[in-house]
Each structure stands twice: as C-alpha cells, then as structure tokens.
Amino acid sequence: MIPIAAEVTGRIEGGWEFVFAAYAITWATFGLYTLSLWARARREES
Amino acid sequence: MMSFLSGLWAILTEPVNFIGWLGFAMMAGAIRMKPKFAWEHTVGVWGLLWLTIGCALGLGWAPKEAMMGEVGRILYVHVPAAWIAMVVFTIAFVSALGYLFSGRLGWDWAVEAACEVGVVLNGLLLVLGSIFAKPTWNTWWTWDPRLTASLVMMLTFIGVILLRGAVRDPNRRATWTGVATIVAYLNIPITYMSVRWWASMHQQQSTPATMNDEMKMVMRMCAWAFLMISIWFIARRWRLAQANAMAEMPEPLEIPKGAR
C-alpha cells in the first residue's frame, strides 16, 4: 500500500497548454491593438 | 527608508536594466534627431525585440517554479502586464493633473491615450490571471479581493472612456475626463494593497530575494518590453487623439471682402 503523502506532492505537473495560451494571447493582444491603431490612423488620414 | 532606497538602487543597477536605459537613450536620440519615421517606432521595435527574447527565455531557459512547475512561466507575462497597467494608469493620473492645472489639451490627449492603453493591459492581465488560476486554483475566476479590485480597476477606466465619449464640448470633456481619471485612480493603491489588507488567495508581492537570478532576469526583461511597447502605444494613440481634436475644430471664418 502506497502512503498518500508519497502521492500528493502539492506540485503542479504539466500545464504547458496554459503557458502557450498565455503567451499566444499576449502576442495576439499586442498585434490586434497595433492593427486597431493603424486602422484608425489610416481612417483619420483619409 | 534607507533599506528601501538601497534595494531600489540595487534593482536599478542590475545589468539586465540596460534594456530599459538603452531604450530610453534611443528614444531620446530619436526625438532629438527627428528621423523620417516617428520617434516612438524606435522604442516600439526595441520593446518587441525584447519581448521576443524574454518570451523565448521564459519558455525555454528559465527554471520551473518550485511548486507551480511549468505553469509558473505564465508569471513572465502576467506580472509585467499588472505592473505596466498600473504604470500606464499612473501616466493617465499625472496627465489628468497636468490638464487640470495647465488647461493644455496635450495633457488631455495623453489622458485619453493612457486610459485606453491601460484598459487593454488590464484586460490582458485579467485574461492571463484567469489562465493562471485554472491550473493553480482549479477555477477560471473567483471573487477574490485582488481579482475583484483588478476588475473594478478596468471597469472604472472603461467608465472614464465612456464618459469621455458622451461629452461633446472639448474643454468640458477634458475637465470631466481629468476629474474622472483622478477618481478612478483611487482604486490603484487599493488594488495593489488588496493582497495585504484582506485574506486573499492571490499571493503577496514577491521581492527579488524570493526569486532566483534566471527568473528575475526574464521577469525584468519582459517588464521592460511591456513598458517600451506601452510607450509606443500611448504615443501612437496620443497622435490619434490629437488628429481627432484637430478634425473637431471649426473651420476658420472667411473674412468678408472690404471688412479690413
């Protein structure tokens, strides 16, 4: 019988999908906001 | 006080801060030399370069966090988003004071720009926090004091932007925006201190002493990158606000013949 203390470490294993999602959303936010500024500046010029 | 100042001095003189100091030097150089492109592009490209390097190091080089493992890598974008959102709202606050004391519309355009960029960063902060919360707290959202205060922070600045859009007279709009920004800013210290004042699931602020050197370096690199990119955004948005204000101004009246 394995003692419970040996199974539960309290450490999180894996989770790369959350990491990649966070980095992708950061870049997407900056990209979309840049695009929005560019589009509004173009509209203002015309 | 002395220990705070010596700690601040130690942080500011770390070698990784050359990213920031060189970025500011490049910005000053570009403003002075007046190249064909707008000066803010220099600092924006510099920020993007360091964000690329910071993300790459955060994903592949920095060590795993002791308890959160790989998920701890989200810190390298989540924490800079929080820091720089507060810095940008502080720029809005200072600009609001600038307008209310001087009456110069340039300050008002800075308030408009900083509020919008701050809301974008604040929104990003909340989304990143939610992604971070799922594997660490097993929930996407909870009405924790820090999370709630951060949400209120974003909503109040969205309120400032909506108020601004509802007032047509430029001078009245600038005054109301300035006052509303100062009121909205009152929540910033509350948000910052919320993890100390109330029982919160969110951890308290880390100090450089609680992080190893690699983690600290990547964190600083990403924070400088966020700051540089935010300066770029604010400057571009400021120009847009200026152009909108110019377009709003009435055409000068034609002087009738023989009126001189």
How would you summarize the topology of this molecule?
The complex is a heterodimer of chains A (46) and B (260).
Chain A: H1 4-7, H2 16-45
Chain B: H1 2-12, H2 18-33, H3 40-60, H4 75-102, H5 105-137, H6 145-166, H7 170-185, H8 187-197, H9 213-248
Helix pairs in contact in B: 2-3, 3-9, 4-5, 4-7, 4-9, 5-6, 5-7, 5-9, 6-7, 6-8
Plain-language structure description:
The complex is a heterodimer of chains A (46) and B (260). The mean pLDDT of chain A is 86. Chain A is an all-alpha fold and 46 residues long. Chain A has 2 helices and no strands. In chain A, 74% of the residues lie in helices and 0% in strands. Chain A is rod-shaped. Chain A has one domain. Chain B is an all-alpha fold and 260 residues long. Chain B has a single domain (16-246), classed as Four Helix Bundle (Hemerythrin (Met), subunit A). Chain B has helices spanning 2-12, 18-33, 40-60, 75-102, 105-137, 145-166, 170-185, 187-197, 213-248. In chain B, helix 2 packs antiparallel against helix 3 (40-60), helix 4 (75-102) runs antiparallel to helix 5 (105-137) and helix 6 runs antiparallel to helix 8 (187-197). Chain B is globular. The termini of chain B are far apart. The relative contact order of chain B is 0.16. At the A-B interface, helix 2 of A face helix 3, helix 4, helix 5 and helix 9 of B.
Q: Would you report the number of β strands of chain A?
A: 0
How many structural domains are formed by the residues of chain A?
1
Structural class of chain A: mainly alpha
Largest interface comes to: A-B, 23 and 36 residues
Share in β-strands of chain B = under 5%
User: Helical content of chain B, roughly?
Assistant: over 70%
How many H/I helical runs of chain B? 9
Reported CATH architecture of chain B: Up-down Bundle
What Rg of chain B, in angstroms, do the CA atoms define? 21 Å
